[in-house]
Design goal:
The protein is an alpha/beta fold. It has 3 domains: 41 residues, no CATH class; 119 residues, no CATH class; 153 residues. The chain contains 13 helices and 9 strands. Strands 1, 2, 3, 4 and 5 form a 5-stranded mixed beta sheet that branches. Strands 6-7-9-8 form a 4-stranded mixed beta sheet, with helices on both faces. Helix 6 packs antiparallel against helix 7. The longest helix has 28 residues. The protein is rod-shaped. The termini are far apart. The mean pLDDT is 91.
Length: 382
């Protein structure tokens, strides 16, 4: 028990053993002789402060800022559309299998066997792509010679078909002979043989040239391009393959579809390569700057069914025609393009077929896409 009265050393206390604290000392009651007194005391222990546990602060995580979504630009949206149209055709091509074609190849002595095999293999593949539309065993005779042999090629096609190829030579003789080792070369669908086989031709480079098959980005699409023309002739415009009747397909679609589909099939697994050849095609337009800046819609409208097939490609068929077909694919996919081709034959009019499938007058549509095409050219710096 602790006493609380004020005490000092030597004062009397009542009971031995009791303690008291005063002036910072602790005194104990002891017996001194016969008396009970307070001893001298010892320093009293200071009470230890009671430590209150302070909980550790839990660090507050810094919130990660949510990125503000960036709105795609109009150019971004156009780039997406380019890939979307490419994917529509390329994805079908990736699932296609080579087919057994019914090719008869007539080659001059200038053409190497390995060149012939490359052409055969690519015919087999593109025929597989279109197998649900046109039988892959469609009989096709292919005449292959060198640029320097362009007269032999024309003469062989005349012999096989019974038709004159004077216009063919007027268009191709001079550049073919002028560039025997390229970069110029020709390919085409040239009607039918007397026995009813489709007739295709190729003028390549001679044996003495560094390469026989052209090495430019466009040749990767050329065989595919020509098979598209075979398909067009079978399901849309029989005049293209020498089966008579009026010309039905507009020139911009003939060359535009062959270019766009040929590019997408040829570069089905190489989008960068596709973009490169797409640019090559867009640049292949006579009076390009004038057409783009002043009369793009008018030029496309002029490339109708009456336009010369010999000058159609460089006049816009390969370039703005391909862009037009790209935009058709964006509207209704490959199925829409096929429906259009079939309707051309049944309606005997590509304009009626266009309204039937796409629900808009062709000229109205052309006016609209001409604005978009101008931006397509601007995006790639042409």
């Amino acid at each position: 028990m602790s006493a609380v009265a004020a005490v000092k050393a030597g004062d009397t206390c009542k009971k031995a053993g009791i303690t008291a604290t005063a002036s910072g000392k602790k005194f104990t009651c002891i017996k001194s002789g016969k008396k009970l007194v307070w001893n001298k005391g010892v320093a009293a222990a200071k009470p230890k402060p009671v430590e209150t546990a302070v909980p550790e602060a839990t660090p507050t995580p810094t919130p990660t800022p949510t990125p503000t979504p960036t709105e795609p630009t109009e150019s971004d949206l156009r780039q997406r559309d380019i890939q979307k149209a490419f994917d529509e055709i390329a994805n079908i091509a990736k699932k296609a299998s080579p087919a057994n074609t019914n090719l008869e190849i007539i080659a001059s002595g200038e053409i190497r066997p390995e060149s012939i095999k490359v052409i055969q293999d690519r015919y087999n593949f593109v025929a597989g792509f279109f197998a649900d539309l046109v039988s892959p065993d469609l009989p096709v005779t292919v005449v292959i010679g060198a640029n320097a042999e362009i007269n032999w090629i024309a003469s062989k096609m005349e012999e096989l078909s019974g038709n004159s190829f004077a216009k063919f030579l007027n268009a191709f003789e001079s550049p073919s002979k002028g560039f025997p080792c390229g970069p110029y070369y020709t390919a085409g669908v040239s009607g039918k043989t007397k026995s009813g086989r489709l007739l295709n031709h190729y003028a390549l480079y001679g044996k003495s040239c560094l390469t026989q098959l052209p090495s430019d980005e466009n040749f990767q699409t050329t065989i595919e391009h020509e098979w598209v023309h075979n398909v067009q002739g079978k399901i849309a415009d029989p005049s293209m393959i020498g089966e008579g009747g009026q010309t039905l397909l507009p020139c911009w679609f003939k060359e535009g579809q062959a270019s766009f589909y040929g590019n997408a099939i040829g570069y089905r697994s190489n989008y960068d390569g596709y973009l490169k050849v797409r640019r090559w095609n867009l640049n292949n337009l006579e009076n390009r700057l004038q057409v783009i800046n002043q009369n793009l819609a008018g030029t496309l409208k002029d490339l109708d069914e009456k336009f010369s097939p010999f000058s159609c490609g460089n006049s816009g068929g390969y370039s703005i025609g391909a862009l037009a077909v790209e935009k058709m694919v964006l509207m209704k996919g490959h199925t829409g393009v096929v429906d259009f081709m079939k309707s051309v034959k049944s309606e005997q009019s590509w304009r009626k077929a266009f309204v039937k499938v796409y629900g808009v007058e062709a000229d109205v549509w052309i006016d609209k896409i001409a604005i978009e095409m101008r931006l397509d050219y601007r995006d790639i710096g042409l």
